[in-house]
Amino acid sequence: MSHLLAFPTVISFDDKEKTDYKYLVYIPDLDGYTQGVSLADAIVMARDYIGTFSLDNPLPDAGKVAFTADESNIVTMVDIDPDSYKRALDRTPVKKTLSIPAYINEAATSEGINFSQTLADAIRDKLHLA
C-alpha cells in the first residue's frame, strides 16, 4: 500500500555560488542537504534525497525536528511516496508468458535473440523509459 509523506524543507538561494547549483536544500528531519539549479530542480532533488535515504533507512516522522530559517529562505513541504520510489527503482526480473507466431520464434531462435531482453527493450522504447 502506498503512502504519501511530506517533509519540511528549507531552500536558500546563493547568487554568489560559483556553480550552477545556486539553490541549497536542507531537510531537517533527515539532517540532509542537496542542491538544485532552479527552485523546481531543488524540490525534485529534495524528493530524490528523501527517496534515496528511504532505500537504506526508515523514514522518521515528518516535521518532528525543530529548525529555524532566515527570512530570505523558502520553507516548503516536499512530498514523496517512498513505496512508489522504491518500485520505480526495482529491477527484479518478473516472469511473463507470451505467445508469438512460430515463424518469428524460429527466426529469432536461429539468430540467438534473447527474447526477454528484446521484449524489455521494446517495452522500454514504447514507454520512453530510461
Automatic annotation (TrEMBL):
Name the UniProt record assigns to this protein: HicB family protein
Organism: Pseudolactococcus insecticola
Domain of life of the native organism: Bacteria
